Amino acid sequence: QVQLVESGGGLVQAGGSLRLSCAASGSIFNINAMGWYRQAPGKQRELVATITSGGTTNHADSVKGRFTISRDNAKNTVYLQMNSLKPEDTAVYYCYAAVGPYNIHYWGQGTQVTVSS
């Protein structure tokens, strides 16, 4: 079992920045990858960024050049730095961890990001 606690969402004007954090606890030695999804009202959940246990990162085309995923292994925490935010980035952002040989996904509670125009 892995527990994920997110923080850092909020309201920001277009062009602004936010940093999301996701702290993992529990069976963290079995985590293969962590990342962020987002879901806007009326839309499907979208993968935003991932980072593997080896440090390989991947970002969705819609956020490349604006968002950066990183991690602090000592704190068991993954971050999503979001710059140049746009109104279309407004969504609930969910942290996830892919765990074990079957990459079972564990989820955080979600944090709201609202970008005003």
Low-confidence stretches: none
Gap from first CA to last CA? 40 Å
Approximately how much beta-strand content do the residues carry?
over 45%
Assign a percent range to the helix content.
under 10%
The topology string of helices and strands comes to: EEEEEEEEEEE
What is the number of helical segments per DSSP (H or I, 4+ residues)?
0
Using only CA atoms, what is the Rg? 14 Å
Report the average pLDDT across residues.
96
Structural class: mainly beta
Q: Which term fits the overall shape?
A: globular
What characterizes the major β-sheet? 7 strands, mixed
Task: Report the strand count.
Answer: 11
Provide the fold topology:
Blueprint: E1 2-7, E2 10-13, E3 18-26, E4 31-39, E5 46-52, E6 57-59, E7 67-72, E8 77-82, E9 91-99, E10 104-107, E11 111-116
Parallel strand pairs: 2-11
Antiparallel strand pairs: 1-3, 3-8, 4-5, 4-9, 5-6, 7-8, 9-10, 9-11
